[in-house]
Design brief:
alpha/beta; Rossmann fold; Dihydrodipicolinate Reductase, domain 2; 2 domains; 12 helices; globular
Length: 419
Amino acid sequence: MPDIRFAIVDPGHFHAALVQKEMYANVSPRARVYAPLGPDLIDYLSRIARFNGRVEASTTWELDIRAGPDFLDRMRAEPAGTIAIFSGRNRGKIERIRNAIDAGLHVLADKPVIIRHEDLPVLEAALNAADEKHLVFRDLMTGRNDVVGAVLRALVQDQDVFGEPHSVEVTSVHHIMKEVAGVPNLRPAWYFDINEQGEGIADIGTHIVDRVHAVLFPDQQLNYRSDIRFGMANRWPTMLSLAQFQQVTGDAAWPGFLAPWIKGDALEYFCNMRARYDVLGVTVGLEVRWDWQAPPGGDDTHAATYQGSRARIELRQGAAQRYRPELYVVPEADIAAALEHRIAAIRDDHPGVALDRQDGEWRVEIPAALRLGHDPRFALFTRRFLDAVGNPATIPSWEKPNMLTKYHVCTEVVALARR
């Protein structure tokens, strides 16, 4: 029997189940689940049952369920496992994470681990406690496993191609009503409480800021106290009708905790945000939006423009790209030879990457075989996390300071927007 065991804590978001969409050779199939009784737990159990019941690549998870209002006390008191998995309510998540660390558990937590700027010292204390106990505490940054992002970073880091970085603009559009793993993704009513889930950049922004900093400053430690300067920030709501709320939650009426945001017969859901800040002198613009539903054939989209002194690197994911992320290089100097040379070097790690010249710009061709979808990235990130648990010395020195910098940015812009 493998030594590593999962303890799933209050799985209120489907990302907890996605960690278990595959089996891991060094992880016991028997996992403990600590959660309050309720619809969140039932949804999680239903997803695991579907994974176990698949015809192809079925899983074999055995769940030891410890449900009840005292679930956190039981996790602390019992030999719960080796790794605590957190994915759910974001308010108070960092305190639950600290409880797991104090109980001697490694922690793999879905983003965001904090949604309020005043919790940054609590996050720092949890990271310090994990270090003292030789435990690994990471948040699920699945975007790090994206080949498109890896190629983008290689191009931006080539001074002969990109030059000096000037600015970055990122727009991320997500959708409230969607399907996940082939079934409608119902969201719990508390998801629409911005004080519980977080809003805009405090939530989705964690992925964006993580990627932007890694593209601009790979393997470099950032200091949130000295390397960040904030500019503007604003926020605006997506209005949800009661019929839409019923469709996406299954609830018949508005819950009382949403009363402050009910305007007439609609919910004022503050999930959209725009902000600007500087990191080590490079200006970064962020925009996060939540629309109701993707257009036919569409999906969540992510667009980015990295402006350098020699070229502009653009990530586009619109209808013209059939909603698949594609990279484009727009030259502002004679970079043809340097770009060809860089692409040839990229092929060493990513075979099949090529260039297609189009109307004064290049499209970077990235084969479908190299691209991972949303769900498989969770298993890949988890495998790398398991490697780190097996050998904590392999964790890069930038991981901790850059995690603090990321959450400093994402929570402070929310505070600025609310002012």
